[in-house]
Design brief:
This protein is an alpha/beta fold. The protein folds into two domains: about 1-10 and about 385-500, Immunoglobulin-like (Sandwich); about 15-375, TIM Barrel (Alpha-Beta Barrel), CATH 3.20.20.80. The chain has ten helices and 26 strands. It has helices at about 50-60, 105-115, 130-145, 150-155, 185-200, 225-230, 250-255, 260-280, 325-340, 375-385; strands spanning about 1-15, 25, 65-70, 90-95, 100, 120-125, 165-170, 205-210, 240-245, 285-295, 300-305, 320, 345-350, 360, 370, 385-395, 395-400, 405, 410-415, 420-430, 435-440, 445-455, 475, 480, 485-490, 495-500. The strands form six sheets. It has a ten-stranded mixed sheet with strand order 23-22-26-20-19-16-1-21-25-24, with helices on one face. It has an eight-stranded parallel β-barrel with strand order 2-3-6-7-8-9-10-13, surrounded by six helices. The chain has a two-stranded antiparallel sheet with strand order 4-5. α3 runs parallel beside α5 (about 185-200), α6 (about 225-230) runs parallel beside α8 (about 260-280) and α8 (about 260-280) packs parallel to α9. The longest helix is centred in the middle third of the chain and has 21 residues, at about 260-280.
């Protein structure tokens, strides 16, 4: 059995957790929108065509914000196509996913859905085929009260009050050669700065997110980020990072170690922000938004219609990845990496919410079910609230392809002062050994174990595809509280959450 020790003290914290770290993402891609959140005629559909079973799962999951409408989709999107009477909306080609977009679901429908889902909207403007003027018009439609062309257009659609959308992404993944309207860093940075400037002239209360590197493996990383910050620092509020990990074929040890790359990615970009801040002698602080992240599973572990062989369909099933227990462990590790940087990472959007690399799956005209990755998100979103503690961990480590020293234990400690509760999140990366973990909570006066659950499966490749309850949290009994020390016995390849009631 492996042995690990964690020490944390109430006087040492990383930072306050922003609730928007528990965001997700809806894009017009495959069955994410149509047959995902929106399916008129379904037995669970409400009067607006929204699947109420999905809405309930989103609320239960703890999602706080949702980014829309893309994603790659947005870089050729005309927002005007998705407002007004549905019968008059145009059918358009979607270049990003080689599909036909009916525009039946657009801005107004999303805002109605967001209200029911109880999430904050994050909108993305098209800086691929369009630019400053269209972004300003979209903002006017959403946020200006009345008396102008686009605000009155909104009112003519039955929306009297402005939506008041606060968060706006200035384009999507503009560093990527796959992106419609791909631009160089200087070109994009200048466009983002000028677009952001006029948007804030119209609505000074908005917050703006500029495109950073789309992956830590991009050839232009981190030079892209430095140049965009150089151009747009004085206008933007956040720099976006996107990150997906696959590579299951390399083995479990290397697959789970990828969270170390995510930590390095975040450290590098926060350093780049600080360099430009000092260079500009600025008093402003630009934070980070990881507004696309997730596990990108191997093609063989998905339900996927090849769009290259059958393009220009409407809401065809693509990239419907089926997640394993192993995938859920990497997913949990990615969330911990972001939370360990809660002082600078303020927004994060799991990608995507339904059907494509998703937490929630739906069968067209059928049932809804939850993937293995739903459960780590649920426990972080519902119990990792408050402040992240500085936690020091001693444990054994291993070497694998691409990484020299990987701790067998991944861990995070969060202190919720309002609930007087400490939540301990643990991942045992070992595929063979159980692990005894002792967590010392200094100065917090632990009282009792408020609850403990584990996510574990005897087969690391087990999914919820056939048996929708095959991998789900179970009550965790192997935990003991003695004085200020919490001792837990973790099974191999498991995710464990322990909640401790404290007096402080």
């Amino acid at each position: 059995m492996l042995e690990s020790q964690i020490v944390c003290n109430k006087d040492f914290i990383v930072g306050k957790i922003d609730e928007r770290l528990y965001g997700s993402f809806l894009e017009h891609m495959g069955r994410v929108i149509y047959h995902g959140v929106y399916e008129p005629g379904h037995v669970c559909a409400d009067e607006e065509g929204f699947r109420t079973d999905v809405l309930q799962a989103v609320r239960n999951m703890g999602v706080t914000a949702v980014r829309y409408p893309g994603g790659n989709f947005v870089s050729a999107y005309h927002w005007e196509d998705g407002v007004g009477p549905r019968g008059k909306r145009p059918r358009k080609i979607d270049l990003a996913w080689k599909a036909v977009e009916t525009n039946e679901f657009g801005t107004d429908e999303f805002m109605h859905w967001a209200k029911k889902a109880q999430v904050q909207p994050i909108f993305t403007v098209n800086l691929g085929t369009r630019g400053m003027e269209e972004a300003l018009q979209y903002l006017e439609y959403c946020n200006f009260p009345s008396g102008t062309m686009y605000s009155d257009l909104r009112r003519s659609h039955g929306v009297e009050d402005p939506y008041g959308v606060r968060l706006w992404c200035l384009g999507n993944e503009m560093d990527g050669c796959w992106q419609v309207g791909h631009k160089g860093a200087g070109e994009y940075g200048r466009l983002a700065a000028e677009t952001g400037k006029i948007m804030k002239l119209l609505d000074p209360g908005i917050e703006l997110i500029a495109c950073g590197s789309s992956l830590s493996t991009m050839e232009t990383y981190p030079a892209w980020d430095l140049e965009v910050l150089e151009q747009a620092y004085d206008v933007i509020d956040y720099l976006a990072l996107h990150q997906y990990y696959g590579g299951q074929e390399k083995g479990t040890a290397a697959f789970l170690a990828q969270t170390l790359d995510m930590e390095e990615y975040i450290r590098t970009i926060r350093a780049a922000v600080q360099v430009i801040r000092q260079k500009k002698r600025s008093a402003r602080h630009v934070r980070l938004s990881i507004d696309e992240w997730g596990v990108w599973a191997v093609p063989g572990n998905s339900v996927n219609r090849e769009i290259e062989n059958n393009p220009w369909q409407m809401a065809a099933p693509i990239s419907e990845q089926i997640y394993t227990m192993e995938d859920a462990l990497l997913f949990a590790g990615m969330q911990m990496a972001m939370l360990r940087n809660a002082d600078v990472v303020k927004i994060a959007c799991q990608s995507l919410l339904t059907n494509v690399s998703a937490c929630i799956m739906t069968d067209t005209n059928g049932e809804m079910w939850l993937q293995t990755i739903y459960y780590p998100f649920y426990y972080f979103a519902n119990y990792a609230r408050g402040v992240v503690m500085q936690s020091k961990c001693q444990c054994e480590s291993y070497e694998c392809e691409g990484f020299n020293e990987v701790p067998y234990l991944d861990q995070l400690v969060v202190w919720n002062t309002e609930r007087r509760e400490v939540a301990i999140f643990l991942v045992n990366r070992s595929g063979t050994d159980s692990q005894e973990v002792k967590t010392e909570l200094q100065g917090m006066a632990p009282v009792s174990v408020a609850g403990a659950v584990s996510l574990f499966a005897k087969d690391k490749k087990m999914t919820n595809y056939i048996d929708h309850n095959a991998v789900r949290p179970e009550k965790f009994e192997a935990v003991l509280l003695q004085d200020d020390c919490v001792t837990a016995q973790l099974p191999p390849l498991s995710f464990v959450v322990i909640r401790i009631a404290v007096q402080k």
